[in-house]
Design a protein that fits this description.
The protein is of the alpha/beta class. It is built from 12 helices and 20 strands.
């Protein structure tokens, strides 16, 4: 059989002042989209081929999380998804689940609806999704099954694609996929629900329990992308059964109710402080190195990466040894390059793109490194491990080394620091613009602190200027009530 396959990923942060344009997407079309597929798309394609089916590729596109997707970019993504033939036997696609486009609050929902309109009511459509998506009743109505990651940090992207493809194969084999769907009014950052810690660990165990029930084919919790000021948002559960709608809905209700009942148990899994206290604690820590997560300006959830509140606090408190990565400031990068390696420069850093969450900081420093930004994942020099971060500069301000980037960069692998001569464990503090530390950094971190910095991804969601979300909404409204 011929199965339409695709992957479109974008996590849209409505608090970011920088819209996401078509040029921000890395996109491949048709057969090219299956050149070294990764993540869920790879799991989908491998599973279909192993079962003897032909994947019919349309598009594989991804952009770093950022502001709302511009309308023309969204239309191009949709047109590519719909460019495939009509005579397919099914569709199995990956969508992030948290895309918002200009004029369309629920971009992924609109994509599934458009695909349904193209393929008609009888062709099964299964969608693999990120754990931090936002599922709507419209999406549930348009698809035959939805399945999400079960880990945060996400280490089961491939396996989620496998699960999605297996559901499609069941539908093609005669199973009647039925979905139960329930959503509770909860906004929660991913940093407060890592799946290796309680209570999210127990929620994942509950999913596994539900999966073992007779008739259940799949169960998922969709933990929401909380930095989207849209009306229909919240934590949701989706359960897929073979022909038993009542069972599917009962188990979705049960999962979401359990999450709601435990809502006050969720929180940061590491030490968490406001900015000045975090810096002071790290300065006085007995550990040789302390990793600080600049969580309010996390590019992995749409931060602009040019909020410099944490740098300002370090300078004010006299920090003698620290690394900060990476601050997006093309103007400062060009000034450093013009001055040359070894030169002393006086310039302002940050606060030029996001002018809401903190001003620029004026500094005097020495240009230590200028780099083309080429790096290899885990240091393994293979083509598939290569990525480019754009032009980088390391500016030394006393004992604080600041990585400045010409392009917005996401630092999640120690090798990205080492590529520009910054050995993370040589510093007292390593401040990364992240939420929770990714596994490769967590593995070498003697101690980790989540810093409640301001920015588009502020983990203290009560401090964010929500205007459109339907109220009451926990934790914006601590006395909110809900039942399935």
């Amino acid at each position: 059989m011929r199965i339409l396959v695709a992957a479109i990923g974008h996590e849209s942060n409505t608090f970011s002042p920088v819209p996401t344009a078509w040029a921000d997407f890395t996109a491949r079309f048709g057969a090219d989209s299956l050149t070294r597929p990764r993540g869920s798309l790879a799991g989908i394609v491998d599973t279909l081929r192993a079962a003897g089916h032909e994947p019919v590729p349309t598009i594989a596109a991804h952009a770093m999380p950022g502001g709302v997707v511009q309308r023309d970019a969204f239309e191009r993504l949709k047109a590519a998804l719909l460019s495939g033939p009509d005579d397919v036997d099914g569709a199995c696609i990956f969508l992030h689940g948290a895309m918002r486009a200009e004029g369309e609050d629920y971009g992924d929902t609109a994509l599934v609806e458009a695909l349904r309109a193209k393929l008609g009511p009888d062709v099964p459509i299964v969608v693999a999704l990120d754990l931090h998506g936002n599922i709507t009743a419209r999406m549930v109505a348009a698809a035959d099954a939805l399945v999400t990651y079960r880990t945060a940090p996400h280490i089961d992207t491939y396996e989620t694609g496998v699960r999605a493809a297996e559901l499609l194969l069941k539908a093609l084999g005669g199973a009647k996929l039925m979905m139960g769907f329930t959503k509770a009014p909860i906004l929660m950052p991913g940093e407060f629900a890592q799946t290796s810690f309680e209570p999210m660990k127990s929620m994942v165990a509950m999913l596994e329990e539900v999966d073992r029930l007779p008739g259940v084919l799949s169960s998922s919790i969709v933990k929401v992308h909380c930095w989207a000021d849209i009306e229909d948002t919240g934590v949701a559960s989706v359960v897929v059964t073979d022909g038993d709608a009542a069972l599917a809905q009962a188990q979705a209700d049960r999962l979401t109710t359990e999450f709601w009942n435990r809502r006050n148990e969720f929180g940061s899994t590491v030490e968490t402080y406001d900015v000045d206290e975090a810096v002071a604690v790290a300065m006085n820590a007995p550990e040789s190195t302390v990793f600080l997560s600049d969580s309010g300006d996390n590019p992995g959830a749409g931060g602009t990466t040019d909020v410099v509140v944490l740098l300002e606090s370090m300078l004010r408190q006299g920090v003698a040894s620290a690394a900060i990565a990476a601050i997006w400031d093309p103007e400062a990068v060009e000034q450093c390059i013009a001055a040359g390696v070894g030169a002393t420069v006086d310039l302002t850093i940050g606060g030029k793109i996001n002018t809401v969450d903190g001003p620029s900081v004026r500094v005097t420093g020495r240009v230590h490194v200028v780099s083309d930004g080429l790096c290899y994942h885990e240091g393994v020099r293979k083509p598939e491990n290569e990525w480019w971060m754009g032009t980088l500069v390391v500016l030394s301000i006393g004992g604080i080394d600041v990585m400045l980037s010409k392009e917005r960069a996401s630092i999640h692998d120690p090798e990205q620091l080492r590529a520009v001569g910054m050995e993370p464990l040589a510093y007292k503090m390593v401040a990364l613009k992240r939420g929770y530390l990714e596994p490769l950094c967590e593995a070498i971190s003697p101690r980790s602190i989540l810093v409640l910095t301001p920015g588009p991804t502020n983990c203290a969601v009560e401090r964010m200027p929500f205007k459109r979300v339907k109220r009451p909404m926990f934790p914006l409204d601590r006395d909110a009530e809900w039942r399935a």
